[in-house]
């Protein structure tokens, strides 16, 4: 029970972050009309009381400006400033939630090691590999709440799991409380340990679908609170409710978001230490810059143990510095663990080279599959053992493959070279590989420059930064493609430019596909090498 304090948890947090605004925060009422509190008058027994009225009174030293009229359970009405009494709110439903689950136990223990949600990247096979080497908690890839709730085939494809895949967090995107809550209810019935709301995805699909980080504006705050409350009601106490966010423009805004989520029912908030759609910014917190772990630490210090904070960002070769820097309950990795699935191993992997890790991944895929298909398989293998693939001139062979057997053949050949030590480089092959790599990098740089130009144009015109990046970026549906194929080529091309100007025409409609493949600057529906396009939050 609180004693001698007129500040609620948010006021305490705000005071720590914004000392210069301390007076303003301290002058806010600590309870509102209609709230129920537990209070002890003059050290008597604790009584339940209801707040009837809140009014500003004459200033009294160390007493606070607000006078509260309360009615106790015996009908007596009293006026009090609360500052000199012992009082508290009765435990809320959120506080009564069972904290005995393994997922929350690991977070309360501290140093929890977590695999981030990744579109096309955190499927079952990769999660199991990471768990083998020290990961304790894993998130599913981002799943559409509407499809997950309504379509068993969608669930079968994207929600593969196993008994060894625990604790598991189901990661959803959506913007409708009822729809998201239905998805969470189904996931809980499937036995997940937690459900998570995506409030961090910065991709253009999130912009056009109005989910992810595009729900973080003030205009959507009530909606976000409703979604989280609906999630809490939808799942049993054993299932934790979580949200994954990005930093907002100011520390104060980020803190208010976290406390809003907490008060709506979220027990865990994972913070990606970068901001959404910030092509025009540089330095810590910018989308392509280092994560701002100081900002994450400020939130951790402010909220204390009222909500578990997970830090995400700047986890490359070692996860411990991020924990030491932020003091968060857990650390989440995306890019680092893609490069090294044994990132969280407490003992050196020893004999397991990157190629051997890639081979282990392929063995797990053979057993459990990969719903995202070969491009995701090749993506994982490439990230795990890129240096070896480049050494043995095998990158392009991997990228040009089409099934699991092709990937196995590439990795096994490289393993043979590694063990025998008899590889002889072919200068011509080296040059071809270098040229193709250069073209891929050029295509990515061209795309980034285009995004920067469009963001600056939108900013000059007072539009959202993603305004022009949204135009023509959504790919055609199967029905649209069927209609386009019926048109003469000139008409087809004209309609394409009108509706799909950023999407690769040849990829969808040319007989041989796009010859540029991964060197094309237009949009292809593939897993890209930029991790920011993989990580959904």
UniProtKB/TrEMBL annotation:
EC number: 1.3.1.-
Xref: PANTHER family: TRNA-DIHYDROURIDINE SYNTHASE, TRNA-DIHYDROURIDINE(16_17) SYNTHASE [NAD(P)(+)]-LIKE
PROSITE patterns: UPF0034 (PS01136), ZF_C3H1 (PS50103)
Cofactors that this protein relies on: FMN
Protein name: tRNA-dihydrouridine(47) synthase [NAD(P)(+)]
Transmembrane intervals: none
Catalytic activity: 5,6-dihydrouridine(16) in tRNA + NAD(+) = uridine(16) in tRNA + NADH + H(+); 5,6-dihydrouridine(16) in tRNA + NADP(+) = uridine(16) in tRNA + NADPH + H(+); 5,6-dihydrouridine(17) in tRNA + NADP(+) = uridine(17) in tRNA + NADPH + H(+); 5,6-dihydrouridine(17) in tRNA + NAD(+) = uridine(17) in tRNA + NADH + H(+)
SUPFAM superfamilies (UniProt xref): FMN-linked oxidoreductases
InterPro entries the record matches: Aldolase_TIM (IPR013785), DUS-like_FMN-bd (IPR035587), tRNA_hU_synthase_CS (IPR018517), Znf_CCCH (IPR000571)
CDD domains tied to this protein: DUS_like_FMN (cd02801)
Chain segments annotated as coiled-coil in the UniProt record: none
C3H1-type domain: residues covered: 498-527
Enzyme class: oxidoreductase
ZnF (C3H1-type) residues: 498-527
Keywords: Flavoprotein, FMN, Metal-binding, NAD, NADP, Oxidoreductase, tRNA processing, Zinc, Zinc-finger
Family: Belongs to the Dus family. Dus1 subfamily. Belongs to the dus family. Dus3 subfamily.
GO molecular function, one term: zinc ion binding
Species the sequence originates in: Chrysophaeum taylorii
């Amino acid at each position: 029970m609180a004693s001698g304090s007129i500040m609620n948890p948010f006021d305490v947090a705000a005071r720590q972050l914004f000392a210069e605004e301390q007076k303003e925060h301290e002058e806010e009422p600590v309870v509102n009309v209609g709230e129920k509190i537990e209070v002890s008058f003059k050290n008597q027994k604790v009584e339940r009381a209801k707040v009837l009225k809140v009014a500003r009174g004459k200033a009294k030293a160390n007493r606070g400006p607000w006078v509260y009229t309360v009615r106790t359970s015996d009908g007596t009405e009293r006026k009090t400033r609360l500052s000199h009494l012992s009082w508290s709110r009765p435990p809320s439903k959120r506080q009564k939630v069972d904290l005995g689950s393994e997922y929350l136990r690991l977070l309360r223990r501290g140093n929890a090691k977590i695999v981030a949600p990744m579109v096309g990247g955190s499927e079952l096979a990769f999660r199991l590999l990471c768990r083998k080497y020290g990961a304790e908690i894993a998130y599913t890839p981002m799943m559409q709440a509407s499809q997950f709730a309504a379509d068993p085939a969608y669930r079968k494809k994207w929600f593969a799991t196993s008994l060894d895949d625990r604790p598991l967090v189901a990661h959803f995107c959506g913007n409708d409380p009822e729809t998201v809550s239905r998805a969470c209810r189904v996931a809980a019935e499937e036995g997940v340990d937690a459900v998570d709301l995506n409030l961090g995805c910065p991709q253009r699909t999130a912009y056009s679908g109005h989910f992810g980080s595009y729900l973080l504006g003030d205009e959507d705050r009530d909606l976000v609170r409703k979604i989280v409350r609906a999630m809490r009601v939808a799942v049993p106490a054993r299932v934790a409710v979580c949200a994954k966010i990005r930093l907002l423009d100011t520390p104060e805004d980020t803190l208010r978001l976290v406390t809003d989520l907490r008060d709506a029912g979220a027990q865990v908030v994972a913070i990606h230490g970068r901001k959404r759609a910030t092509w025009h910014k540089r330095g810590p917190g910018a989308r392509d810059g280092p994560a701002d772990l100081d900002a994450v630490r400020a939130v951790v210090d402010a909220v204390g143990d009222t909500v578990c904070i997970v830090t995400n960002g700047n986890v490359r070769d070692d996860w411990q510095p991020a924990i030491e820097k932020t003091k968060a309950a857990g650390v989440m990795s995306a890019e680092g663990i893609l490069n090294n699935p044994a990132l969280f191993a407490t003992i050196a992997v020893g004999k397991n080279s990157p190629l051997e890790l890639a081979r282990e991944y392929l063995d797990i895929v053979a057993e459990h599959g990969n719903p995202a298909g070969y491009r995701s398989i090749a993506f994982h293998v490439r990230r795990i053992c890129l240096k070896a693939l480049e050494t043995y001139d095998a990158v392009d062979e991997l990228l040009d493959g089409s099934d699991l057997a092709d990937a196995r053949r590439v990795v096994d050949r490289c393993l043979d070279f590694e063990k025998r030590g008899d590889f002889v480089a072919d200068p011509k092959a080296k040059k071809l590989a270098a040229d193709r790599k250069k073209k891929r990098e050029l295509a990515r740089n061209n795309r980034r420059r285009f995004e920067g130009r469009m963001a600056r144009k939108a900013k000059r015109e007072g539009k959202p930064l993603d305004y022009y990046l949204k135009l023509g970026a959504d790919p055609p549906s199967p029905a649209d493609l069927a209609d386009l194929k019926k048109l003469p080529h000139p008409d087809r091309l004209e309609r394409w430019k009108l509706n799909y100007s950023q999407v690769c025409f040849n990829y969808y409609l040319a007989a041989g596909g796009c010859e540029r493949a991964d060197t094309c600057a237009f949009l292809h529906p593939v897993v890209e090498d930029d991790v920011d396009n993989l990580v959904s939050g």
